[in-house]
Design goal:
By secondary structure, the chain is of the alpha/beta class. Helices cover 58% and strands 9% of the residues. The structure holds guanosine-5'-diphosphate and magnesium ion. One of its GO terms (molecular function) is GTPase activity.
Length: 437
């Protein structure tokens, strides 16, 4: 996958005290190949490496103190730029705000309509109305009703009406009369672009003049996603892109190319089938993720949503004072377990996506880790530096694990503490520095 390959390409530079022009050129060639393999359009991949090379030369990478790190930073920044730079929110003006979903069948429109309604309801205090304009399959209307029930949002439908434009207009009237301040219109899709579908959604679009027209695309469809985006954009001139099915594993190709081809921002990503599996799209986090760092910031944010504030403050103090110990690690793990879907979460941990790709992740994935920590004395937990070879053997015996497993945990713990400390002291710069060494 792309992150593996980029990782490998950048590895050439990482750790090198000194790099040469040949080195840079080799690395960029690898980066370009990785991008092409990930379905990034040829011209974009070429422009990308040219820009990075120019910047590298301009910033005297070759004579800088830590050339490898500087290169990694340049690649990361350029990836971020390619995906739009800053995050872009959705336009919530209008009473009600009218949001129109577009995209092929199976791209995730209905699921995302539900996720967005839930997001706007719980995070923005809105009162959304979902509208079923997929009039061809009775099952589609039912599906939206199921979603609506799940999140406690009303669904407007007219099962007997075969006029999508009229349904959408009636729904907006209904919303105005009943105090709904957001109207999310779910539409029909086809398996491939066809004229009839395009005409229908274009008619709905013209009739209701949405404040936000969103194009939903399955990120697993690679280069096809880009062609579809182009076709929809030519017709609807949409406002933003939703990338769905970005669960766990990283597939960056579509994200990298779509923005450049249609010049519209990616606004949200879908990361699972559940209603909570929605995230705002942050280009720099996506770049981190593509570079194989894992989406640490999202992970921490999701974790924090589950914590009470007090807990988080205590933890921050400990990290700042270098007092983060295995007891804290253990309670972190317990928090993570509470958050549910292990696969989603593990994919966000740096390196873990790769390491655990082929491993079936069970809910007791942390069993060994917990056993090992439970076999430590209180002193060992608060002051891991006292754990020497002898103690490791004892801990392994006590927990029914191998010394290598204890070593591995100690290493993970060490990395995690370092990472937490860095994230505290000023975000992006530190993350970038971390990548270099
Ligand atoms: P629509 O035809 O565009 O309305 O697509 P649906 O919303 O019905 O979604 C098609 C399938 O994709 C369903 O099985 C969804 O559960 C699934 N799906 C949608 N979004 C995601 C996502 O972000 N991750 C995963 N894993 N599945 C998704
Ligand atoms: Mg649907």
């Amino acid at each position: 996958n792309l992150s593996d390959k980029l990782d490998k390409a950048l590895h050439i530079l990482k750790g090198h005290g000194k790099i040469t022009e040949v080195n840079v050129a080799d690395t960029l060639k690898e980066v370009r190949r990785a991008l092409l393999d990930a379905d990034v359009n040829f011209k974009i991949a070429k422009d990308f490496t040219t820009t990075v090379k120019e910047k590298a030369m301009g910033q005297n990478v070759l004579t800088s103190l830590q050339p490898g790190q500087l290169m990694v930073k340049l690649v990361k920044d350029e990836l971020t730029e390619l995906m739009g730079g800053e995050e872009v929110g959705i336009n919530l003006s209008g009473t009600p705000t009218v949001i129109l979903m577009s995209g092929l069948q199976g791209s995730g429109k209905t699921t995302f309509s539900g996720k967005l309604a839930n997001f706007l309801k719980t995070k923005k205090g809105k009162k959304p109305l979902l509208v079923a304009c997929d009039i061809y399959r009775p099952a589609a209307i039912n599906q939206l009703h199921v979603v609506g029930d799940q999140i406690g949002v009303e669904v407007y439908s007219e099962p007997e009406n075969k006029d999508a434009v009229a349904i959408a207009q009636n729904a907006i009237k209904h919303a105005k009369a009943n105090g709904f301040n957001v109207v999310i219109v779910d539409t029909a899709g086809r398996l491939a672009i066809d004229e009839q579908m395009m005409n229908e959604i274009a008619n709905v679009h013209k009739a209701i003049t949405p404040h936000e027209t969103l194009f939903v695309v399955d990120s697993m469809t690679g280069q096809d996603a880009v062609n579809t985006a182009k076709a929809f954009n030519d017709r609807l001139n949409f406002d933003g892109v939703i990338l769905t099915k970005l669960d766990g594993d990283t597939r960056g190709g579509a994200a990298l190319t779509i923005k450049s081809v249609v010049n519209k921002p990616i606004k949200f990503i879908g990361t699972g089938e559940k209603m909570e599996a929605i995230d705002i799209f942050y280009p720099s986090r996506m770049a981190d993720r593509i570079l194989g760092m894992g989406d640490v910031v999202s992970l921490v944010e999701r974790a924090q949503e589950q914590y009470d504030e007090e807990e988080a403050r205590k933890l921050q103090k400990k990290i700042a004072k270098n007092e983060f110990g295995f007891d804290d690690f253990l309670s972190q793990i317990q928090q993570i377990k509470k958050m549910g879907n292990m696969k989603d979460l593990v994919g966000m941990i740096p390196g873990a996506g790769k390491a655990l790709k082929d491993v079936e992740i069970e809910d007791d994935a942390f069993k060994h880790i917990e056993a090992i920590i439970h076999s430590m004395t209180p002193l060992e937990r608060t002051k891991p530096t006292v754990i020497d070879g002898k103690r490791k053997i004892r801990i392994a015996k006590g927990s029914g694990t191998k010394v290598e497993q204890v070593n591995q945990l100690m290493k993970q713990f060490d990395q995690m503490s370092k990472m937490m400390k860095m994230m505290q002291g000023g975000g992006g710069k530190n993350l970038a520095r971390m990548m270099g060494g």
